[in-house]
Amino acid sequence: MARPIILILAAIPILAAIFIVVPQLTRPEISSSTINSQDVLTLQYTKEHLQKVSFGVTQSIGADTAEVLTIQKDGTAVYSLTKNGYSNPDIKYQLSPEEFKELESLIKETGFVEIPDAVYAAKPGATNYEKYGLQVTLDGKTVTLQWADQNASQQFVPPIITEVQSKLDAIINEITK
What we know:
This protein is α+β, with helices and mostly antiparallel strands. It has 3 helices and 8 strands.
């Protein structure tokens, strides 16, 4: 009589763990439950490769490459590249509805627009690094952020910023294939 009771008692935690773990494994990485068709999302992402240039006695930091990605509310993207002072023709691209929904979910569900405007400056001795800028507007609320590579930054850049950066870099890679 004691064995069936012990087996039943031992099965309860196992069943509880299954009911907790299975939904976590089967749900999508970023839910689209907060997507509202009335939302208006626009982004402007800039990426500059900066390096120290010496003019004999003086030195300054200058961009040898600048990339700008602008994404409108309908998923239309425009990519601009300026290299060594010369602009390349703009490339227009249409994000798929899934790509745009994933990006919009990432911005909305993480509370990205609640981040205060910030500048994560580079270390004074940094000579060769990437500098990023991002302006996100969601339903009229705008947040503007600037940061340097984590290796060149004086401060810790929050992971949500680098996550959005990775997503936008992936879009740029798709555009420039």
